[in-house]
Amino acid sequence: MTRHGHFTLGGENPPKSTYYEQGKFGRLFPMLPPFATDTPTVRNALMELGKKGGIMDAADEMDIVANPNLARDLITDPALNVTNPNNPALSAGMTFLGQFLDHDITFDPTSSLERQADPEAIQNFRNPLLELDSMYGSGPGASPHLYDQSVGGEGIKFLVRGIPGAAAVSAGGFARFDLPRNNQSTALLGDPRNDENLIVSQLHVSMLRFHNAVVDHVKGDLGLTHPGEVFTEAQRLVRWHYQWIIVHEFLEKTVGKPVVDDILADGRKFYKWRNQPFIPVEFSVAAYRFGHSQVRPSYRSNFGPTPADINSQVFKLIFNDSLPDDPDPNDLRGGKRAPTRFIDWQTFFDFGDGNVRPNKKIDTRLSTVLFDLPGFAPGDVQSLAQRNLRRHLTFGLPSGQSVAKAMKLPVLDAIHLDDLKPLNLHNRTPLWFYLLREADVEEDGKQLGSVGGRIVAEVFIGLLQGDALSYLKQDPGWTPTLPSATAGTFEMTDLLRFAGVVAPL
To answer: I need a surface site. Which of 1, 2, 135, 173 has the fewest CB within 10 A?
Structure first.
């Protein structure tokens, strides 16, 4: 269901210099030069900066053999969080909501780390709109394998599958669900990346069940009966409530409410286009990768059958590259179905019961597990930090300093980048690293700083304003209509309750 509107700012015939003609990927600052020339010296400096054991490695304890309870202790023992501090302002689930949003707007299966300086040459196979096509696919007609064709599903509800044996190890015998899978355990869904880890996989399941619950609401409370009309109205409600959460929960908590309010009231200053929205590489390759610094080394995935007993609760590393590819490995990798592989959302979003856990601060330290990513061939770059930094050369990204100056926002003092002097990157800092450091310096890592926050907020709000069917375009004064804990708003906790995926503890 592709919908591209035509949208501009500044009148019908803006001066040519105001806009840069874009493909689905493009640049916010096309006139800024790359932060550095692609030379062996620069490449080696980036690899040194992002290496395991380097200055970006949080140096988490990783010896799970010596300490079988390490995954739990990394959460419960404050001494193990000193070099990788928690973020008291953002819950653990916001990291994975951010990952889900990314998969909704970008998908480039042809990407590589080889030289690719022209972003317009890259085909984005995801509509650059926040319309949930990662979930809806091309709709019931063109993607029937995603939908339940049985009686009751009518081809307009999503197909989900129960997890055999999960009720027996879930508090109160609560039913648990997984993505539909073929006989090789490959998930049937609109974007395979949403089965990368258990948490984003279960978030996708929750969104499927949210849609199914809204279908029942449209039938029972709104009185619609024709399947096509029911699906269309349910999809609109799902999308609009999801978009509300993006603006009024995700963005407000990630960049700060004043930035969001300013953009909604006074418009975007930097993210503009002539014909249709695009994905800026300054956003996709740098600013929006802030979430990598929020990832915890381990999570409590669920409470087990006896929530009050810590020995009942399931704690696992997010990834553990040393583990074999077992049907139920002792980490949270995706692509598996087993009785304990489900999520209790009380750990990830704040239901007011004291069970929520934080994510990590937005800073230049990444959890150690992200320096040994699983699933790569021998010789491949396994450090997520190195992969991110090399893309700055691949896409010819400008330095953080030059972007801050172009935006007329404060530039970090040289003292805050002293640790980059040995690599000669202190005056021409890769944008991703610069924005992480900016968040740490300006906001104590609790949210993005002035440059990073403005880029992220303008792109998300701009994508919604450029979508002819979004609530911001059709009815910017709209407020949520589905049940919520607080009238007139709608948050992830409300969505998860309505979807029926929150177990009573």
So the answer is: 2
Domain boundaries, the chain: 16-499
29-54 CB burial, b ≥16 within 10 A, e <16: beebebbbeeeeebeebbbebbbeeb
Q: What is the CA radius of gyration of the chain?
A: 22
0.85 exceeded by the pTM?
A: yes
8 A C-beta contact, residue 178 and residue 184 = no
- Three-state SS string over 288-305 comes to HHHHHHHCCCEEEEECCC
Superfamily the domain 16-499 falls into: Haem peroxidase domain superfamily, animal type (1.10.640.10)
What number of CA atoms fall less than 13 Å from residue 106's CA on the CB side? 24
If we measure between CA atoms, which residue out of 248, 261, 243 comes closest to residue 467? 243
76 vs 459: CA distance, rounded Å: 36
Mean pLDDT in residue range 232-246:
98
Give the pLDDT confidence of 14-42 residue by residue, as tens digits: 333 334 444 488 999 999 999 999 999 99
Which one, of 361, 495, 372, lies nearest residue 440 by Cα? 361
CA dist 447 to 238, 257, 279, 407, 433, Å?
27, 11, 22, 19, 15
For 28-120, where are the E strands, in sequence order? 86-91
- CA distances to 48, 330, 371 from 367, rounded to whole Å, are 17, 18, 8
217-220: long-range contacts, CB 8 A cutoff, minimum separation 24: 217/482
Query: Which residue is listed with tokens 């800073």?
Result: 363
> For 403-436, how does the pLDDT look when each residue is reduced to its tens digit (9 = 90+)?
999 999 999 999 999 999 999 999 999 999 999 9
Residue pLDDT, tens place only, 35-63: 999 999 999 999 999 999 999 999 999 99
Q: What is the pLDDT of residue 111?
A: 42
Say how far apart CA 258 and CA 192 lie, in whole Å: 35
d(CA 264, CA 286): 23
Cα distance between residue 465 and residue 246, in whole Å: 13
Per-residue DSSP letter, 416: G
The whole-angstrom separation of Cα 462 and Cα 195 is: 28
